[in-house]
Amino acid sequence: MSTVLITGATSGIGKACAYLFAEQNYNLILCGRRSEKLNELEKELSKQTKVHTLQFDVRFREDVFKAIESIPSEFKAIDILINNAGNAHGLHSIQEGSLDDWDAMIDGNVKGLLYVSKAIIPTMIDRNQGFIVNIGSIAGKEVYLNGNVYCASKFAVNALNKSMRLDLNQYNIRVSGIHPGLVETEFSDVRFKGDSERAKQVYKGYKALQAEDIADIIHFVVTRPYHVNIEDLIVYPTAQASATMLNKNEN
Ligand code: NDP
Ligand code: 8X3
């Protein structure tokens, strides 16, 4: 059975992927910082498939490599890496943004994705096969007001996705970028630092994408025949036409 490693599996898109891939009998390696959430997932999903959890922060490179080296042999042959961990922190103009927020986004969304990929790619090269799914964003295709550093981090993911396709082409490794618009997850809670009222407003007045919608698309992408590689996929809720155009019912 194939093995999938999912970063950011404790919530939102990553958690929905964990459930869907468990249903499809993949062996799961689930990663995140919140160990209680990882434990809950392990307990629940072990009823369906083999689950291994790894608790680490993608920003800390030594922790990333230590965690990935610690993977037990029965899980070591990773077929699919879903680079999903990431968040926005704050929504401020470039002149007002916080340096800590900037570090969290660049270190988590960009460097974290690089560290995890760097730790896993050699195992894929050795096996001459593998699939890397990079979760970007429409924010990596189009900037919006006050999105500055989050957008920059996702533009970087978009560039890395394309670069990985070039560099790994000779090793038979597939690489896909998925770029969602508004998905109703903990994303806005994190962006607005626990201001749940403000977070709820983001998804009010229209039907946002659900984490399960994105998991379903990721599953579709990775289950195409091996000679098929979807490089790039942008997905919006129907009510959203661009990063800045949203048909909201304000009543
Ligand atoms: P959530 O906040 O629900 O999930 C984020 C996940 O990432 C959590 O599991 C969190 O786990 C993990 N994570 C965040 N930072 C770190 C870190 N430093 N180290 C390890 N794990 C980390 O948001 P989403 O599910 O929406 O986000 C998933 C991805 O989708 C992100 O890359 C996001 O940018 C992207 N995206 C989201 C959209 C949206 O509208 N929601 C739209 C487009 C893209 P833990 O806290 O346990 O570490
Ligand atoms: C998350 C979607 O529009 O908040 O990447 O940037 S958005």
Automatic annotation (TrEMBL):
EC number annotated for this UniProt entry: 1.1.1.-
Class of enzymatic activity (EC top level) = oxidoreductase
The family database entries (InterPro entries) matched by this protein are listed as:
NAD(P)-bd_dom_sf, Sc_DH/Rdtase_CS, SDR_fam
Q: Transmembrane helix: present as a keyword of the record?
A: no
Keywords for the protein's UniProt record, in alphabetical order: Oxidoreductase
GO MF annotation terms: oxidoreductase activity, acting on the CH-OH group of donors, NAD or NADP as acceptor
**Listed Pfam families:** adh_short (PF00106)
Q: Which domain of life is it from?
A: Bacteria
The record's similarity note reads: Belongs to the short-chain dehydrogenases/reductases (SDR) family.
What name does UniProt use for this protein? Answer: NADP-dependent L-serine/L-allo-threonine dehydrogenase YdfG
Organism of origin is: Tenacibaculum jejuense
Print the organism lineage.
Answer: Bacteria, Pseudomonadati, Bacteroidota, Flavobacteriia, Flavobacteriales
**Could you tell me the gene encoding this protein?**
ydfG
